[in-house]
# Entry
Amino acid sequence: MKLYAPSTIRDIKEKYGFKLSKSLGQNFLTDKNIIDKIIDETEITEDDLVIEIGPGIGVLTAEACQRAKKVVAVEIDKNLIPILQETLGEYDNIEIINQDVLKTDLNEVIDKSGCRRAKIIGNLPYYITTPIIMALLEGGVRADSITIMMQKEVADRIKSGPGTKAYGALSVAVQYYCIVKNVATVPKEVFFPAPKVDSAVLRLDLREEKPVDLIDEKMFFRCIKAGFGQRRKTLSNSLMGLGDVTKEEVKECLDYSGIDEKRRAETLSLQEFASIANYFSKRDK
Ligand code: SAM
# Structure
């Protein structure tokens, strides 16, 4: 059975009386090349645990089951569970968890699996793409990589560098935790039903060592938030958004970091944000 074929999706809908949920971001993949691309780029080995976020009817899941030691698929929609039990019935290395991924402790899943390495995959529901990515990264998920489909616009924001329009708090945060690789741009026509916008696949390799030395990670993220909170303002103004700093301290900090106070957050590298954050962390000690 070609799981990814629109006719299969229609048959499943009819057989199970299943209705696609717009609010759960159910746009299913119908293109085998894209499915293969996501699976190939994940570089799954037979020792790996693969965790899939939002398996839908299992198009990516089935391919992962053929390559991994174990696959754990976390699906929020209870109506998809009997469907997945049928479409994945031939595999004995699959576990389906009927739960919101944001309420699932993936490190516990990884520890329980007995696998040495874990890789996360998914065609993410658009409505919570950024919260899912940030929850994985801020929660310190112990996976090697996260290979995921998302709206192209979000992928552009994640991968862009200083001085570009798309560069922002999300770019700095994700690049702090991961090395970002662009895998593919995906036209909206390959989904059933087609969403309004194009998509892209990124592979995020979790860094073993962070790219900058920070005295206090929280201060780093506060500075990013303040800087981009008012991205049209110069740094001498936007950093006042930190709340507990004076104009003089901001000026001293920028002098110390060798950063022109007329620059804006969107021009700062990770290293420059780190220098600003470390200045204020030292001040607070
Ligand atoms: N992987 C399938 C595919 O590529 O055809 C389905 C992808 S569809 C874009 C997103 C899937 O995520 C849906 O099956 C949806 O029910 C599920 N989902 C939505 N929100 C979720 C959440 N918070 N936790 C787990 N799964 C979720």
User: Anything to note?
Assistant: The chain is about 40% helix and 20% strand. Residues 24-29, 53-56, 59-60, 74-77, 80, 100-102, 123, 125, 128 surround S-adenosylmethionine (CB under 6 Å). The first strand starts at residue 28 and ends at 29. The chain has a mean pLDDT of 97.
